[in-house]
Write a structure and sequence with these properties.
single chain; alpha+beta; two-stranded antiparallel sheet; 58% helix
């Protein structure tokens, strides 16, 4: 199988199973992204967040803010963050 071929992947986010087709090389990133997102949503339960949709929105906003901070640091010439930024971008592009 070529790495750019799309393969079926199923992930659960907020208790909902999502069937996706992703590049084979991105499968683990997508699964990791789902785990991270679910964990972040669980963290927001401690703040007595409303429903799942609210926690999902807060988690997405939190991760997007992190991505933007990393991009700003990258543009400022911080090459050490290049790999972490690329991983976050790959995770977010899968959705």
């Amino acid at each position: 199988m070529r790495p750019e071929e799309k393969i079926p992947v199923r992930v659960a986010i907020a208790g909902k199973v999502l069937p996706l087709k992703v590049a084979a090389q991105d499968e683990e990133f997508v699964k990791m992204a789902a785990r991270m997102l679910n964990k972040r949503m669980d963290d927001f339960k401690n703040f007595h967040a409303g429903d799942e949709t609210d926690r999902l929105a807060w988690a997405a906003l939190d991760y997007t803010g992190e991505l933007l901070r990393l991009r700003a640091e990258k543009q400022a010439g911080n090459p050490e963050l290049e790999q972490e930024l690329q991983q976050l971008e790959t995770l977010l592009q899968g959705y």
